[in-house]
Write a structure and sequence with these properties.
The chain is mostly helical and 151 residues long. It contains 5 helices and no strands.
Length: 151
Amino acid sequence: MKSLSRPDDLAEILRRLRTLRPDTSARWGRMSAHQMICHLADALCVATGQKTVSPATGPVQRTFIKWIALYVPLPWPAGVATRPEIDQEIGGTKPQEFADDVARVESLLMGLARNPGTNCPEHPIFGPMSATAWLRWGYLHADHHLRQFGA
């Protein structure tokens, strides 16, 4: 299974990230490519404990949905709502300079890959997560949004 813990998988995500341009069109959703970059940064800040978001979880999300999302080899579906604090139309970080925002995502991805166990906060939907689960989530979340933009 792909994960940010594997150097080749991290390199793949970074390579795909670098193919994006501010005018890259989305295949689905409302975000622009630049908004998506900021959403990835916000979500990675949640994973590293640098940002907190409101929980939206219950027993089904913390067990069954979490297991499916992290371990069933299917791409994540389009249109799943995110938390307001990292939603680009509500409280997410606003885009600044595209190249700088991409560089921030790269740095956050590499930081999570280097230090996955430093801070293992609860995922707002999946609840408690191990370092291994956060690394798997990091790959899948980035992959989902890169596919959104054909990268």
